[in-house]
């Protein structure tokens, strides 16, 4: 839509950045909708079956890489970034080195980021509307077929690293992304440039070898996919490699040199809740479904459901050191109504018996 005569595109873009930062976004950038190179990468990735059981990726196809088809009239995308690394959570390496402890990806320790960021993007849109009048927009936070990392890279918020996460020289990779699709004729920012160089720390650290080549991830091997996105049985050869990771995996971020200078999150809602940064596998495995739902209220963890929660924990308990307490916990679930849970409990007991 055309802007009012008294407001220039550049001045509005500057205001949008200021409003965004006042709302808690660490960085705000603007891009156009051309994602041709990223679309080619997406198509090749899908053709190789690297999306695993995430059928929606195939189903949405190029809708993901063509913003103006997803939201007709889109001219520019405002991308935002928000740091989330909890300042007071137990050190991640300490948890990973303690086999009887439960490791949960840092982004899921606090409240679910989706609603929080969407509300703030809506507030940003409202402020723009107050300044220029009604305009076309839609806000997204990992909630639709959107190539958020590609758009953020185009908007200058960083570059897609070898581990396929977005990286920033000043902020590392511990941040969430969100987008505001708009019909505004705003000036675009220069895209981010790649600064991974010859480093392959993330590739070498991946427990399952999921980063099969620089900038290429096979989701079927990724622990985050296996413990969160995948609803079926976890392939047996991969189970020992999960260690005590019961929801996601941060290894590629933990070893990345750019994260040595990453800022901690300042949003209180992203701090660890219910002691999930320092809790034993046995304690979590004892949660019945009502307890699971209560303790994960407002958390991203709830989306996997109690059945997959128990599946993941059974694998982690099998990977823990030999322990009578662990065996007793697994045996208590051996007759669980879910075949999926029973299968992984049986595997855990076999591991404990070795």
From TrEMBL:
- Keyword presence, Oxidoreductase: yes
Q: Which GO terms of the cellular component aspect does the record hold?
A: cytoplasm
Q: Which PROSITE patterns match?
A: 4FE4S_FER_1, 4FE4S_FER_2
Cofactors (names):
[4Fe-4S] cluster; cob(II)alamin
- Which compartments does it reside in? Cytoplasm
Write out the catalytic residues in the record.
142
Pathway it acts in? tRNA modification; tRNA-queuosine biosynthesis
Q: Does the keyword Transmembrane helix apply?
A: no
Q: Where is [4Fe-4S] cluster 2 bound in this sequence? A: 206, 222, 249, 252
One of the GO biological process terms: tRNA queuosine(34) biosynthetic process
Q: What would be an example GO MF term here?
A: epoxyqueuosine reductase activity
Q: Which InterPro entries match?
A: 4Fe4S_Fe-S-bd, 4Fe4S_Fe_S_CS, QueG, QueG_DUF1730
The residues that the entry says bind cob(II)alamin are 64, 142, 166, 177, 224, 249-250
SUPFAM superfamilies, per database record = alpha-helical ferredoxin (SSF46548)
The record's section on HAMAP family has: QueG
* Subunit (UniProt): Monomer.
> Function, please?
Catalyzes the conversion of epoxyqueuosine (oQ) to queuosine (Q), which is a hypermodified base found in the wobble positions of tRNA(Asp), tRNA(Asn), tRNA(His) and tRNA(Tyr).
Write out the similarity annotation.
Belongs to the QueG family.
- Identify this protein by name: Epoxyqueuosine reductase
């Amino acid at each position: 839509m055309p802007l009012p005569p008294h407001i220039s595109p550049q001045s509005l873009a500057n205001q949008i950045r200021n409003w965004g930062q006042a709302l808690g976004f660490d960085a705000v950038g603007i891009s156009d909708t051309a994602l041709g190179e990223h679309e080619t990468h997406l198509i090749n990735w899908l053709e190789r079956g690297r999306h695993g059981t995430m059928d929606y990726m195939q189903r949405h196809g190029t809708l993901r890489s063509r913003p103006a088809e997803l939201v007709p009239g889109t001219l520019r995308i405002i991308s935002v970034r928000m740091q989330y690394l909890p300042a007071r959570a137990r050190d991640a390496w300490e948890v990973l080195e303690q086999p009887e402890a439960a490791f949960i990806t840092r982004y899921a320790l606090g409240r679910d980021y989706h609603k929080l960021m969407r509300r703030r993007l809506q507030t940003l849109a409202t402020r723009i509307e107050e300044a220029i009048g009604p305009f076309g927009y839609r806000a997204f936070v990992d909630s639709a077929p959107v190539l958020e990392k590609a758009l953020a890279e185009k908007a200058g918020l960083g570059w897609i690293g070898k581990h396929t996460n977005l990286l920033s020289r000043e902020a590392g990779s511990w941040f969430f992304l969100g987008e505001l699709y708009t019909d505004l004729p705003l000036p675009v920012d220069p895209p981010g440039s790649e600064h991974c160089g010859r480093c392959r720390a993330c590739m070498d650290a991946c427990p399952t070898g999921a980063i099969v080549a620089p900038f290429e991830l096979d989701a079927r091997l990724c622990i985050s996919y296996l413990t969160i996105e995948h609803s079926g049985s976890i392939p047996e050869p991969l189970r020992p490699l999960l260690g005590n990771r019961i929801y996601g995996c941060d290894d590629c971020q933990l070893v990345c040199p750019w994260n040595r200078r990453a800022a901690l999150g300042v949003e209180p809602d992203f701090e660890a809740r219910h002691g999930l940064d320092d809790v034993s596998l046995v304690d979590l495995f004892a949660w019945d479904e009502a307890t699971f739902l209560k303790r994960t209220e407002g958390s991203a963890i709830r989306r996997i459901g109690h059945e997959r929660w128990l599946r993941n924990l059974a694998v982690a308990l099998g990977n823990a050191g030999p322990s009578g307490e662990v065996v007793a916990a697994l045996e208590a679930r051996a007759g669980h109504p879910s075949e999926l849970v029973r299968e992984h409990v049986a595997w855990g007991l076999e591991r404990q018996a070795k």
